Amino acid sequence: MIKGGNAFVPTVPLRIAVRNGVDVAALLLTETGRVRGDGDIVFHGAPVHPSGAVRLLGEENGTSWLETGLTAVEEEVVRVLVVGSMESGAMRDVHGLSVEAFAQDGTSVARYDVTDAGGETAMVLAELYRRAGGWKFRAVGQGYLNGLAGLVTDHGVDVAQSAPVPPAPAPLPFQVPIPAAPAPAPVPYQPPAAAAPAPVPFQPPAPAAPAAVPFQPPAPPAPAPAPYPASVPFQVPAAQAPVSEPLPPHPVPAPPAAETRAWTFGADFEPYTQTGRDNDVITVEGLPPGPVVVDLAVRGDGYTGLWPLTGFNKEGDTLVNSTEEDFQGRVLTQVPENGRLRLRLKAEGPWQLQVLPLAAATRLTEEQVERRGPDVLLHTAGTADLAIHYRGDDNLIVNLFELAGHDDHTCLPSDENVVNEIGKRRETVPLPEGPVLVQLEMADGPWRAHLKRVEPHSRPLDRGGLANVTDIRSAQADRSWWSRR
């Protein structure tokens, strides 16, 4: 698999191999993306989850083994993260870093080789997550420069700042005899003793034999218990609760006094609006050639897809590909030279589609924009930092189109990808001097964004799409359709 790829796996006990030589842990998460408490962390200090559904088997020849009994995972748990970390060095120093899942008969059902590790000292390598009544494996590869403490904090663990590493000599956390593991009565995923040794071609460590204890830890992993103080109660912040309805449109703030000039890159035209229900083909005539914004809102919980149609009536690059309930978002597309834009829409339920000029996109300022779904934003100030807080579970992809000196309004310059990550996260992106078009190409889920450390322009504002013309607020399209449904 490549990073971000996913595939269904059989809902059976799986053995997961993590190579090579990293410390391994598993986090069991609820729909909030957070653990319920310290018991939902499986690591060297607590190698068996209280439910018995996930256990750390140990390490052999640089490969660490986890066992996940998917049929025994509690209903409240929707994701199981497979985590790797380093006590010294960085993830890029690990040769052949990979994670692979095996079925009971030794068949490999999913594998992800990490090829882009950098200076991170901890990483979510992969995850198992519920989907359509079964389980899927996703290649994640999300690194953390602030290490394991930063990773677990992002998922609801309150790491004790005052607890130094010395508590390492805590009572041999790894001395958990195998007979004790089956103690919880409901352990349905334990394979028969005869089946464990024979058909497992990937040579798992001795845990297959009840008498041997193959997961005796090496001395270094002992410090791991420090970041997980059992005495700290777990609390899920209310702000992290999943959002089931689209966020209301945020009013566009008035530009600062020093930034009264409006965005004029691209042609101006009256917004086009069409409503309908279910699948359709939308045709808009008489548009000026060049990039435009398409605002789509669908009321329903089915699949939503949107594609431009070529002159041969074939689908072009995908604009929307979402299974989000009540999808709402804005995307970029190109009007052909003939001024005829055709779009193919797949939807289940009522929808509204608008075609808007670029000037109708939301202006970025130091005031917060709060939305969900893909979007198109405008940066017209000097250099600044863009702060993004994303609370979705899938990809967050952010691209920049730097328009300074780009005079061809019939096309956009090449984009620069600045964010391509999976899951909830906070990002700060440095923005060059405006004008810049900020595209959230993928963002299934709620997010917030605002500018920080905004500097004044160092060049005249009449280059690359800025001029002394009408206030941008007059170009904003009406986004209150939901309130009228």
Topology:
Elements lengths: L5 E4 L3 E7 L3 E7 L11 E2 L11 E7 L2 E7 L9 E7 L12 E5 L5 E6 L8 E10 L2 E11 L2 H8 L107 E2 L8 E6 L2 E5 L5 E9 L5 E5 L11 E3 L5 E8 L5 E6 L3 E7 L5 E2 L5 E4 L2 E5 L4 E7 L4 E8 L13 E7 L2 E7 L4 E8 L2 E7 L13 E2 L18
Parallel strand pairs: 21-23
Antiparallel strand pairs: 1-11, 2-6, 2-8, 3-4, 3-7, 5-6, 7-10, 8-9, 10-11, 12-30, 13-20, 14-19, 15-18, 15-20, 16-17, 16-19, 22-29, 23-28, 24-27, 24-29, 25-26, 25-28
Query: Do you know the CATH architecture of the largest domain?
Result: Sandwich
List the total number of helices: 1
Helix content: under 10%
DSSP, total strands = 30
Class by helix and strand content?
A: mainly beta
Instruction: Specify Rg, calculated over alpha carbons.
Output: 26 Å
Strand order of the largest sheet: 1-11-10-7-3-4
Strand count, sense and barrel status of the largest sheet are:
6 strands, antiparallel
Q: Which fold name fills CATH's third level, the topology of the largest domain?
A: Lipoxygenase-1
Q: Which residues form runs of ≥5 with pLDDT under 50?
A: 161-187, 192-202, 204-262, 461-485
Q: State the fourth-level CATH superfamily of the largest domain.
A: sav2460 like domains
Query: Can you tell me the number of structural domains?
Result: 2
Beginning-to-end CA distance, first to last residue:
42 Å
- The pLDDT mean sits at 78
Q: Give the CA-based shape.
A: globular
CATH class of the largest domain: Mainly Beta
